[in-house]
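testing teh design pipeline on a random one, pls ignore if ur not involved
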C-alpha cells in the first residue's frame, strides 16, 4: 500500500534525513587508507547517539536474510555493490567505497548512499562513481508530480546505459516513511509513462547501482547479505530520499 505523507510528516523525515546526511559526510571524511570498516561503523553509531536517532539498518531482518543485519552502515568495497557488512577490513588507497546509511527519528526514516574514493582513485573509478551520481540526479529530476514511476526508472537507466555500465537485475529503490522499505518498489530500469502516478506526499528512495563491466549479473556472498558483481568488476551506488511535492522533487537527505 502506498502511503502519502503530510507536511508535518515530511518535516520529521527531513530531520531524519539531515542526520543521515551529516553522518554520511562524517564517515566519507574518515574513509581513508588504514581505517577499518568497523571503525567507520563505530563513527556512525556515535553520530546516531549524538543526534538522538536510531539506526534503520541495525537488526533489520528481511525474509531473504539468514541473520539480522549487524551494523548501522552498509559498506561495500570495489566489486561489492550493496549491503556490505562492516568488518575488520582496512581500506587501501584506490578503493571505491559505497556508504549506505539509514536513520529514524520519531518513527520516520531517512535513507541515503554515496560512493567515494579512498585516496587517489583511477580515472575509470572516477567515471563510474560520477555516472552513478549523474543517474541519481536524473532520477530526481524526473520525480515530478503527475509523472509516472517509470519516468524515474527510465531516467536512471538512460544515464547508466549510455555510459556502458551494467545495472544489477532486480535491485532498485523503494518507498520510505514509517518503515525503511515501503511500497512502491522503484526499479532502476523501465519505460517512461508507465507505472504509478507520482502524487504530492509520496516519498521515494531513489538509488542507482552500476557495474563497471556492463554486466547485469550479481551474486550474494556467503554472509547472506553482501551483493557482489559476478565478474569481479567494480560497482557504485548512490541514493537520496526524495519527496514529491506540488513544486517538484525535494531531497530530504541533505544537510
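output:
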Amino acid at each position: 500500500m502506498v502511503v502519502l505523507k503530510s507536511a508535518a510528516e515530511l518535516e520529521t523525515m527531513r530531520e531524519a534525513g539531515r542526520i543521515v546526511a551529516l553522518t554520511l559526510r562524517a564517515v566519507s571524511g574518515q574513509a581513508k587508507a588504514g581505517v577499518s570498516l568497523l571503525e567507520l561503523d563505530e563513527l556512525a553509531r556515535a553520530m546516531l547517539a549524538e543526534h538522538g536517532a536510531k539506526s534503520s539498518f541495525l537488526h533489520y531482518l528481511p525474509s531473504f536474510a539468514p541473520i539480522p543485519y549487524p551494523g548501522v552502515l552498509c559498506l561495500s568495497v570495489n566489486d561489492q555493490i550493496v549491503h556490505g557488512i562492516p568488518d575488520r577490513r582496512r581500506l587501501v588507497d584506490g578503493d571505491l567505497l559505497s556508504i549506505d546509511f539509514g536513520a529514524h527519528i520519531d518513527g520516520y526514516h531517512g535513507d541515503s548512499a554515496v560512493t567515494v574514493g579512498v585516496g587517489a582513485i583511477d580515472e575509470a573509478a572516477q567515471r563510474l562513481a560520477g555516472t552513478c551520481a549523474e543517474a541519481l540526479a536524473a532520477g530526481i529530476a524526473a520525480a515530478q508530480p503527475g509523472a509516472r514511476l517509470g519516468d524515474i526508472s527510465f531516467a536512471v537507466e538512460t544515464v547508466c546505459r549510455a555510459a556502458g555500465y551494467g545495472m544489477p537485475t532486480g535491485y532498485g529503490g523503494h518507498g520510505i516513511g514509517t518503515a525503511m522499505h515501503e511500497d512502491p518498489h522503484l526499479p532502476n530500469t523501465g519505460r517512461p509513462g508507465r507505472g504509478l502516478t507520482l502524487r504530492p506526499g509520496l516519498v521515494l528512495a531513489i538509488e542507482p547501482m552500476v557495474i563497471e563491466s556492463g554486466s547485469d549479473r550479481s551474486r550474494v556472498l556467503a554472509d547472506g547479505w553482501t551483493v557482489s558483481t559476478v565478474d569481479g568488476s567494480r560497482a557504485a551506488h548512490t541514493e537520496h530520499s526524495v519527496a514529491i511535492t506540488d513544486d517538484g522533487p525535494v531531497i530530504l537527505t541533505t544537510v
